[in-house]
Fold:
Amino acid sequence: MTAAMISIGNFFFKYRNQLFPAIIVALFLLAPPPAQLAGSATAVQVKAIVALLLVIAGLGLRATVIGYAYIQRGGLNKRVYAKDLVTEGMFGVCRNPLYVGNMLIYSGVFLFNGNPLAVMLGIGLFAFIYQCIVLAEEDFLQEKFDDAYRSYCRDVPRWVPRLGRFRSATEGMSFNLRRVIAKDYSTMSATLITLLLIEFYRAAIHDGLSQGLPYLAILAGLLALVGVATGAVSRLKKRGVLSEPKPIH
Structure:
């Protein structure tokens, strides 16, 4: 079972940039956002607030991780790879803090859609995929770092952050906001665009293009604004304004 999950994890790690958006689009076409939940429009608003809080928590966690410790563990040639074993910063609180942040974001996105089928299938499927990816990474890290990684695993939990360790794990480190913007602006942009597209989708389905046109125009304007802001940050990065930090060794 574990060997099969490692193979699945390596597959999704390689094609995650193509498969993850495709899965989300397919799920949302299969299960479009509803106008009401259990006959209540208020429940839809409460659901949206909870969803946005989850997304904010996920982006905030990712920002905290990247702001304190930059790692080169994003793969090499689309395969699992790590140059060094990073245990500093939030990696001293949880072994996979970026993936925890991602799951919070995806959970928020599926909940923002609100269709029970999309929520259950989406969260369940992505939880399984990330578990497989983590097993694939652990297999690689254990092979490469051996006893050092085994000791790290004994000391730091895989998924649930031990927040009480945050102060000691980040002691002597400084938070780098510029690094956060440079490394994670694309994730922030993609998340905002996804949420706006879901709302556009919901309004177009339930309000209609004629009645909901002013609201749809506002959403289209916000999408354009996010696109312009993303392009501006990208240009700043290319010009070296958001200089690359040196990785921790």
Notes: The radius of gyration is 20 Å. Residues 31 and 143 are 41 Å apart (CA to CA). The chain has a mean pLDDT of 90.
